[in-house]
Amino acid sequence: MTPEFSERRNTDESLRTSEETFRLIFDRHPHSMWVYDRETFQFLEVNNAAVTHYGYSRDEFLAMRITDIRPEEDVSRVRDGAKTMTDELRRSGNWRHRIRDGTIIDVEISSHTLEFCGRPAALVLVQDITDRIRADAALRESELRFRSVAQSATDSIVAANGAGEIIFWNKGAEATFGYAESDVMGTSLSRLMPERYRPFHERGLKHVRATGESRILGHPVELSGLRKDGREFPLELCLAAWETRNGTFFSGIMRDITERSQAAEALEHRAFYDPLTDLPNRTLLRDRLRQAILGAQRGNSLVALLLMDVDRFKEVNDTFGHHFGDMLLQQLGPRIQGCLREADTVARLGGDEFAMLLTGVDATRASQVATKILSSLERPFCLEGQLFSVEGSIGIACFPHQGEDGETLLQHADVAMYVAKRGGSGYAIYAPEHDEYSPKRLALIGDLRHGIEHGQLLLHYQPKLSLKTESVEGVEALVRWRHPEYGLIPPEQFIPLAEHTGLIRPLSLWVLREALRQGQVWHEEGLALHVAVNLSARNLHDVELIQTVSEILETWEVSPEWLQIELTESGIMTDLFRSVESLQRLQDLGVRISIDDFGTGYSSLAYLKRLPIDEIKIDRSFVKEVACDENDRHIVRATIGLGHDLGLRTVAEGVEDRIACDLVRSMGCDSAQGYYVSRPLPAVACTQWLREHQVASSTEHRRLG
Ligand code: C2E
Ligand code: CA
Ligand code: CA
Questions:
Q1: Among 200, 207, 448, 628, which residue's CB has the most CB atoms within a 10 Å radius?
Q2: What is the pTM of this model?
Q3: Count of structural domains, the chain
Q4: What is the reported pLDDT for 7?
């Protein structure tokens, strides 16, 4: 072998090897490749990938032109393209091809001109991009769909990037917040919320960026939104976040819930307020009562609950119709409210029943409020030009004395209201004995008012003997009730009822008038007696007492010093401050004051010095045993001594026999009263008794102290 030959052979061989290599690359290449004649468009060569991908065999390909795999409408473009293709030119572009089964595919091709077997040809590399194009189209479509949905939604839909800058803003947001899309794109989300929320918002964003977590992601939350015009409104926000290569993004769907919050408020209002009168209902009252009791427990103060029933409401309803009844109820609320302080609650419990809740108020003050409310009802109501007046009955229960929880107070106030209604007394303060009321007893209260007004009360008088002069210095008036059915009822059976129901006022008034009238009669007959009248603590705290007493004294032309007023020690002590004031005014009037049942109360003797009083009546429980009980003897002796030290007269009550009488006299006691002297007697019998006994002449009586 010559060297040239072997060189040529080597060259031939390496050429062949290289050609084979390229052939191999061409055939094995995963993308379709072919070579075509640039003049005839005839396929000159195709690779395996093209055969597989397009579905034509190699022979079929070589019998076709490149235009055969184009959809009709693209053919002219192919021709033009090929014509302009010059040597050395390299081209790429997107085309559509039709494969054997007729399917159109999208391809990206790059072609290179070359000479193939002496012909101007082009090598084409094809990449099927059908899936990518479809995905892009789907994405574009979905984006369009999203935009059209998002834009047409009435809710605000806003998207923001991780920095909180707005990147999407729909028509709903425009309407809700008042900003146009161009106003807000690229600006901070924080402008959509009131100033005070902005720091939280910033912190929240930071947190989500750092951790990808947010408490409000995915849950609807209620916030306040801020409109362009500065108005705040309640909104519901549902926040979503997503991650991309470019960071975190947020989208929020926001809804103006002004209407919904208003509806919720209205519902809440309905749950707690009476629709007719717009006053708190029973539910709200219970709640306020509970709060008031908690407050009172903390502050060691009082709560008073008043329940009122309108007495003639049914009459109005029945006679004039529900329409009138409703109007009346509507007018009642403000009328009652006018009698209370701002902070007090008036509630309508249903029907014609109202409740008043007063804080920091005791039973006495509550009774005054009750009186005020009842008298406010006497002013006529004007309903469509007609005038109506109504009456009410009020039951009072106070925390803690008449109930330590709301339910008990409600129950007890209700009982007291029943008592007040039956007794016709206007109001009643709950007392445990109310619970035990037999219908007979309740009827008794009902009868009492009637009895007071219809002359069923009478007075018995018990003489008081001076142990110094052995003469009768006065009498104590003791009330009795002659009941048409039950006969003579002792005071102990109806005075407590009168005290609880407010009837004590007309009762005491009657006693005062009657006792002074009788006193006047005795004076005219030459019997110089002073008359003692028992009053209740409730009378003492009656603001009109002083006025009433002086009027009665004037009416009967009785000198004030002939009137003595007896008050129990415990009665005075219930409200010492006010008692002192009232007692002082009575004393200033010239009336004499006695402390009744002395020794049974819990008052400290120290107080005695400060009380404007003239006389101490030592309770009969001590006097009764004074002969046999050493202890009682000590008490009686000490009380007499103390009284004298303070310049007070002393009277021994319940002196039943001579031994007791002598004993108290020996102890220095000024007067004695009791069965030993005389039983309480009706006026006529008492007059007779007085005539038979020595009565001091009027000149011997001087006011002491
Ligand atoms: P009091 O003021 O302590 O009246 C004396 C009571 O003791 C009277 O009972 C009288 O009958 C009774 N008594 C008198 N001497 C004796 C005695 O020697 N032994 C015994 N065991 N008892 C004697 P009465 O009349 O039943 O009155 C009871 C209470 O009723 C009175 O006690 C007084 O607190 C009250 N009361 C009577 N009348 C009135 C009134 O007009 N207004 C008020 N607020 N209370 C009255
Ligand atoms: Ca008395
Ligand atoms: Ca007494």
A1: 448
A2: 0.49
A3: 4
A4: 66
- Choose one of 128, 150, 175: the last residue of a domain: 128
Nearest CA to ligand 1 atom 30: 491
**Residue 287 resides in a domain:** no
Per DSSP, 601 falls in state S
Q: Which residues pair with 457 in a beta bridge?
A: 481
- pLDDT tens, position by position, 214-270: 666 777 888 899 999 999 999 888 888 888 888 888 888 888 888 877 877 777 788
Find all residues with CB under 8 Å of 39, minimum gap 6, and list them. Answer: 119, 120
Concatenating the DSSP letter of every residue in 475-513 gives: EEEEEEEEETTTEEEPHHHHHHHHHHHTTHHHHHHHHHH
Same domain, 113 and 140: no
The reported pLDDT for the residue numbered 656 is: 95
Question: Which structural domain, as residue segments, surrounds residue 240?
Answer: 133-256
Look at residue 283 and tell me if it is in a domain.
Answer: no
Low-confidence ranges of the chain (pLDDT < 50): 438, 697-705
Residue 596 alpha carbon to ligand 3 centre in Å: 5
CB distance 601 to ligand 1 below 6 Å: no
Assess whether 398 and 466 both reside in one domain.
Answer: no
Query: Helix 576-589 crosses helix 545-555 at what angle (to 10 degrees)?
Result: 20
What is the pLDDT, as a whole number, of residue 704? 28
CA of 489 to the centre of ligand 2 (A): 17
* Predicted pLDDT of residue 606: 62
What does each C-alpha distance from 328 to 276, 347, 548 come to in angstroms?
Answer: 11, 15, 34
